[in-house]
Amino acid sequence: MPPAVRFGVNYTPSEGWFHHWLDFDLDSVRADLDSIAALGLDHVRVFPLWPYFQPNRALIRPRAVEQLVALADAAAERGLDVNVDGLQGHLSSFDFLPAWTRTWHRRNLFTDPEVIDGQAAYLRTLAAALADRPNFIGMTVGNEVNQFSAGPHPDPDRATPEQIDTWLERMLAACEEGAPGRLHLHAEYDATWYQHDMPFTPAQAARYGGVTAVHSWVFNGTAQRHGRASVPSEHHAAYLVELSKAWADDPHRPVWLQEVGAPAPLVPAEHAAAFTEATVTNALDCPGLWGITWWCSHDVSRGLADFPELEYSLGLLTNDRRPKDIARVLADAARRTHPTPAPRTTALVVPADPEGRTALAPDGTVYDAFFRLTADGARPTTVLDTRAADTDHLRARGITETVTAEQVLTPQHRWSTPHA
Q1: Vertex 327, ends 322 and 331: CA angle to 5°?
Q2: Superkingdom, according to UniProt (predicted)?
């Protein structure tokens, strides 16, 4: 029997946001974790801010590492497992990069040998500090670090896909050296799947690390074009889960919906619970789903300035730790037993060439065809054009028919192409 789907939350401290590491208050953290555990969730994803933990390339602050371990132990006391993101990196519109990589010390995050050595030492140190904790899931290399590698970032650290291959291998190896045998992974925002010049590629996302992570946000054009209650909006997370499978070498590689949220005003507060329920229900219809980790636990305090407006209201709980309707939806899902979804037997053919990623993006041909099939009840998955005739691959994934976007989007053409 496959393992049960995990339900968790990205932990945003109610007091001080992620700046709480500067004035760490374990009692406040415990109260936050109590409010999370009361929802019946089983894990949290936590975010040490990189420049606070490693302010100099040769200094990883022991006290900061001790505080991270204390947080993990407090989570364990409440039955919560912990995943730790290392390189923060980017959070909620703010960049957090140490001074030894910027301005007068400007060095490329992905290609400079000294920076890479510093990053590896940092990830290895955090992993090693938690390696003996039974509730430690593993490391995520960083939060959406691909946003530093290309536009629209105003000052990107340019790299080639081959250089990113080397960087990912080094970072994941450092995590494994620190905590052997744990579930270590990396995670990017959806430009990896949608932006043709992004050096972080779908193949890297689906092949490096122990699980594929996807981050689903409908403010990427989906909700703007189609509305909050549309098939594309309510199935966007499921789309990314199934899209990622096209590049996986392991036909049964698990996928972690590691970030998903209900962003206002595109999803107004009074409709957030319905959006959450639809998103979770549709994601649970994806075979091989490792877990769903909602963004985020607690609202950002209105006492903090300069956040985009939507960031203040994304929490499952208010800033004073009261659960919202969306918290109740996720709690109900976490407490239920979910049947194993049937295989998705219809596969939409997608281009293996990373230059073809615009077809996968909102209102690209693959994107439109996927949701046309979904609206027709087909429960589609995806397959690379280079594997569409590989009968062994199709059989291993339970695929019995393939279809191209052009076939789906041509009104007079019935889209099914059977395979033995």
Answers
A1: 125
A2: Bacteria
Q: Mind listing the pLDDT tens digit of every residue in the chain (420 residues)?
A: 567 999 999 999 999 999 999 999 999 999 999 999 999 999 999 999 999 999 999 999 999 999 999 999 999 999 999 999 999 989 999 999 999 999 999 999 999 999 999 999 999 999 999 999 999 999 999 999 999 999 999 999 999 999 999 999 999 999 999 999 999 999 999 999 999 999 999 999 999 999 999 999 999 999 999 999 999 999 999 999 999 999 999 999 999 999 999 999 999 999 999 999 999 999 999 999 999 999 999 999 999 999 999 999 999 999 999 999 999 999 999 999 999 999 999 999 999 999 999 999 998 999 999 999 999 999 999 999 999 999 999 999 999 999 999 999 987 544 444 444
**Among 335, 358, 373, residue at a domain's last position:** 335
Residue ending a domain, among 285, 311, 335, is 335
CA distance 401 to 418: 4
Residue 1 lies in a domain: no
Distance CA 186, CA 177 (A): 16
Are 232 and 226 in contact, with CB atoms under 8 Å apart?
Answer: yes
Name the strand (E) or helix (H) holding 283: helix 272-283
Report if residue 340 sits inside a domain.
no
Q: Which domain holds residue 203?
A: 6-335
